[in-house]
Every structure is written in structure tokens, then in C-alpha cells.
Amino acid sequence: MRLATLVGLRWLAVVGQTAGVLFVAWGLGYPLPLVECLSLIALSVVVNLVLILRFELRAALENLDRFRFVLTSGGKQDPLRGRVG
């Protein structure tokens, strides 16, 4: 499963958990430790953002490596083009 899919599912979980906690606390009037519950949900948000930034940075660096390879290998004017190996 791709990371983007997992992060998307994690965002869905964050929304669902937040809605559930707020509904139980405010809708049903059940006393919950809101600060603690919402802090743990916020921790999931931070983890999601770190995952997104980490793997976006990795993808950007891989693209930079590809670009550098094209520049140093002759680009469209490949010196090996036309040679039979």
C-alpha cells in the first residue's frame, strides 16, 4: 500500500476521532478529559505532517538527482545514441 493512501486513511481517522470525541463531550454531555483526548489526536496530525514532509523531501531529492544525471550525461544529445552495444 502506498504511503499517500496510508496518510489519507490517517487523516480520515483524525477527522473521525475528533468528531467522535466532540460529539460525546458536547452532544451527549459525557465528561471527557478533552485536553488529553484532543492532544493525542493532535499528535496524529503532527505525525501525518512529518510523514508528508519527509517523503515529499525525498521525492524532491530524487527528482534533483535525475535532473543532475540528465545534465551531466548530455541530456538529449546522448553520446551513446546510435551506438550498438
Task: Outline the structure in words.
The chain is an all-alpha fold. It has one domain (3-72). The chain contains two helices and no strands. The chain is rod-shaped. The model has no long low-confidence stretch (mean pLDDT 84).
The percent range for strand residues is under 5%
Q: Ends: how far apart? A: 38 Å
Q: How many β-strand stretches?
A: 0
Q: Helix/strand/pairing class, anyone?
A: mainly alpha
Task: State the domain count.
Answer: 1
Say what oligomer this is: single chain
* Share of residues in helices: over 70%
Mean pLDDT: 84
Counting DSSP H or I runs of 4 or more residues, the number of helices is 2
- Alpha carbon gyration radius: 24 Å
Q: What characteristic shape results from the CA principal axes?
A: rod-shaped
Summarize the main sheet. none
The arrangement of helices and strands along the chain is HH
Low-confidence stretches: none
Features:
85 residues, mainly alpha, rod-shaped
Blueprint of the fold:
Layout: H1 3-27, H2 34-72
Helix pairs in contact: 1-2
Short description:
The protein contains two helices and no strands. With 85 residues, it is mostly helical.
